[in-house]
Write a structure and sequence with these properties.
It is a single chain. By secondary structure, the chain is of the alpha+beta class. 24% of the residues lie in helices and 32% in strands. The strands form two sheets. Strands 3-2-1-9-8 form a five-stranded antiparallel beta sheet, with no helix packed on it. Strands 4-5-6-7 form a four-stranded antiparallel beta sheet.
């Protein structure tokens, strides 16, 4: 290195004022977005949910334990801890577990990706479960139409 380059490096202050402003604005933006995501999330207690295959509702559940089978492709088995649904509408199947508390999850499916199995169980109105291979959607009843996940 030349002497001139060494002197330039010694005199360099590191961050310039514009760098600090840009990084500060970026940190502030990230903080605002994270706060909005946490505050706007719908964590109200789950009152019930509905299961769709394609655009057709196939099962309806209330947290008080009442349920309605809306399609013959759904078989319900009562277990010690709640209900187990075997849903076979079309080529594949999904097994849905409903705990006594009303929490719902997909426990088995014959699709290749299996993303619905890895999705977290629904405990409140802030989530849904979707299986793209079988067009299966489980969503809380309190979803507004503008929040509904489009299928197909």
């Amino acid at each position: 290195m030349s002497v001139k380059k060494i002197e330039e490096l010694k005199n360099d202050t590191g961050f310039k004022k514009t760098d600090v402003l840009v990084y500060g604005a970026l940190v502030l933006l990230i903080a605002v977005l994270l706060t909005a995501a946490l505050v706007l999330r719908d964590d109200t207690p789950l009152k019930g949910f509905r299961i769709y295959v394609g655009n057709d509702a196939v099962f309806d559940y209330e947290v008080n334990g009442e349920y309605t089978v809306l399609n013959s492709c759904v078989n319900v088995t009562e277990t010690d801890g709640g209900l187990e649904l075997y849903i076979k509408c079309g080529d594949g199947y999904n097994i849905v577990s409903i705990k006594d508390e009303g929490f719902v999850s997909v426990t088995d499916a014959d699709c290749f990706a299996g993303t619905c199995i890895r999705m977290p169980e629904i405990r409140n109105n802030g989530g849904y479960i979707f299986c793209s291979a079988h067009a299966l959607l489980i969503q809380p009843k309190n979803y507004e139409p503008s929040q509904q996940v489009p299928i197909g």
